[in-house]
Design a protein that fits this description.
Two copies of one chain form a homodimer. With about 350 residues, chain A is of the alpha/beta class. The first copy, chain A, contains twelve helices and twelve strands. The first copy, chain A, binds a DNA duplex (30 and 30 nucleotides) through helix 2 and helix 4.
Chain lengths: ~350, ~350
DNA sequence: GACTGGATTTGGATCGTTCCAAATACGCTA
DNA sequence: TAGCGTATTTGGAACGATCCAAATCCAGTC
């Protein structure tokens, strides 16, 4: 029942406490902590014992202040609740952790106002860099104002609006949206579809524009006409997709297939189709984008494009870490390729 | 084309720069920053203008050092890629952000070793408190060693192994696992099932034990026997669930329904059943736990227990913030209730 | 013009660590 | 035992903010 330690119960243990405890200077303890070869072995052992005894925990904030360094990286996501971003985040955190960085999390819920607030708040913590998947409609000027020109930023997934040469110095990691959507469209065409819609997303989102371009490209290459009512916009989530489903069938000819902006939208569309008595995967073909975990488990399983979000997370972290190494090198634009995963949701047209 | 600012391009702007820029002392600038009523209006205006001009960003780390405060809270999760935790995280971050805290993220991927490493690393950043959803098999002694007795910790979702009176001082936010599983089991019994299995999870996980207890309770109350081979363990993810599916049908009588440890496991089991030619929701009834987003969209939609993870995230944040207010008050154990959501996966038994 | 008291402003020490130049210790040789 | 070179150790000034006691300002009063 003896007291193991006579340290005061409150107040944190600092370098000085350790130094006093074993009659060396603070500088020496500091050297021990950082594993410097300068300290003698006897001293090192003594200090290490004392560290253990007193239950010392390193104060990285103080060290960072003195050394003018940072050991954190901010991760700002437009929608953490979306499994695609959750997996991405987990990849980022994993890779950053291995490199000795800690992740400062911020999620914006697609709100530009929150994005501004979150960026401001995170910057005050002095991250070494940031990874940003912008909220819809976020623009370069505001982000630059919040982040400043000194801190490296990696843009993921979406472009910012209003980019100018001055702030185009950011690195990027984007998905090959156009090629992905083209692959999906070509796949549907190969199955015999002629009336193919592009469903979901907003026109002012860069990723949506790119995917739509891939769709258009494939349609034109196959000399297929595109009706205006085959382009239905909706927010990139399930709920709005269900609501907008009807719009697909307002005009003639009605589409027999749809390339969807992403998986969430595709899953929503499925639900909407069921509600109208149309069975997806039998009466109507559709494809998604992202290959979130539930895509393989939906009814029917969803044909989609896989981007392996966890791997993208690791990649994003690595790109940013490289940037920290070489702050002056030219900005990099990385395009991650995507692969078509064919599942049961993409059926041949009923007529064929 | 005039230079707007003559500040050196590199090197961050500090209080002293501002002070020098408008001939006041650092102390005054500091007061302005914190909106103190002490400073005169003319001075305040002058300083604020200078802050804007120079693009000052507050260094919260330095302030925290001096004030011996903290503005961050660590969130350590066993599985961020699981949508349940992703939504939880997004709720936590939202509530913490509103309270002016920043979230330090750490995900452990169910590895005790990583959990130790992550906790250690996060502690060095001096969070005001932590929210921990422990990895499977994590024990109280190790967590206490990593976190210390000073920093408030809120346990979420799972209990730690090896709890002793000394480290039982942590707050807790748990789900009403037992009641939830009992409700699910009673529901299946009411549908006419007599042979009901409990599928998935590991015996040494507290949440699994509790859910299993709820299942047992309902079975016993209905005077239904339980066969040993109706208890199949597996890791709480889809993949392992698919693999273990066969084990359910090794003995007789075979179950006609299963209460699953969670949604991930239930969705995996569905897949496994399909592979054996058994159609879930028609030939076999099952229930999940968590109500992750995909539960409503699976084929068939999954009967499960909803815990509204985003709301739980907010609640966890609020509980921890309250603890920071009153460090001395007695530890709180909060049990969040869950609700049964009946969907098509829970069908009557084939015979009935 | 000296004095008073509230309103502002300020220098200097401090938080816990690291850097750096300088001091001390120690083992050997002469 | 003095002298010397290498191996350790160390005081004190940073880092960028805040705290606090003390200084200064500025009407208004006598």
């Amino acid at each position: 029942m003896a007291m193991e330690s006579n340290a005061p119960v409150h107040r944190k243990i600092t370098l000085s406490d350790i130094a006093a405890g074993c009659n060396v200077s603070r500088a020496t303890v500091s050297l021990v902590l950082r594993g410097s070869p300068l300290v003698g072995k006897r001293t090192r052992a003594r200090v290490e014992e004392e560290l253990r005894q007193q239950g010392y925990v390193y104060n990285r904030a103080a060290a960072n202040l003195r050394r003018r360094t940072s050991s954190s990286i901010a991760l700002v996501l437009n929608d953490l609740a979306n499994p695609f971003f959750a997996e991405f985040a987990s990849g980022v955190d994993e890779a950053l952790g291995e490199a000795g960085y800690v992740t400062l999390l911020g999620s914006t819920g697609e709100s530009i106002a929150r994005e501004q607030a979150v960026l401001g708040s995170l910057m005050e913590h002095g991250p070494a860099g940031l990874i940003l998947s912008p909220a819809e409609g976020s623009d370069a000027a505001r982000v630059l104002a919040a982040v400043g020109a000194q801190t490296p930023l990696l843009l993921f997934n979406r472009e910012l609006g209003g980019e100018t040469p001055e702030n185009a110095h950011w690195d990027r990691l984007m998905l090959d949206n156009q090629r992905g959507a083209r692959l999906a469209t070509e796949h549907l065409i190969a199955l015999g579809h002629r009336h193919i819609a592009f469903f979901g997303g907003h026109r002012d989102s860069s990723s949506c524009r790119e995917r739509h371009a891939g769709y258009t490209e494939a349609m034109q290459a196959a000399k297929l006409p595109i009706e205006p009512h085959w382009r239905v916009e909706c927010a990139p989530n399930r709920l709005d997709a269900v609501a907008q489903c009807g719009a697909l069938f307002f005009g003639t000819p009605a589409p027999t297939a749809a390339v969807c902006y992403n998986d969430a939208v595709a899953l929503g569309l499925m639900l909407g189709l069921y509600q109208r008595g149309v069975q997806p995967g039998r009466d109507f073909a559709l494809t998604g984008f992202d290959d979130i975990a539930e895509a393989a488990l939906s009814a029917p399983p969803l044909t989609t494009l896989t981007a392996t979000p966890r791997a993208r997370g690791r990649q994003a972290a690595e790109l940013l870490l490289q940037r920290l190494q070489t702050p002056q090198s030219a900005p990099r634009r990385t395009i991650a390729s995507v692969q078509l995963v064919v599942r049961a949701s993409s059926c041949p047209p009923p007529a064929a």
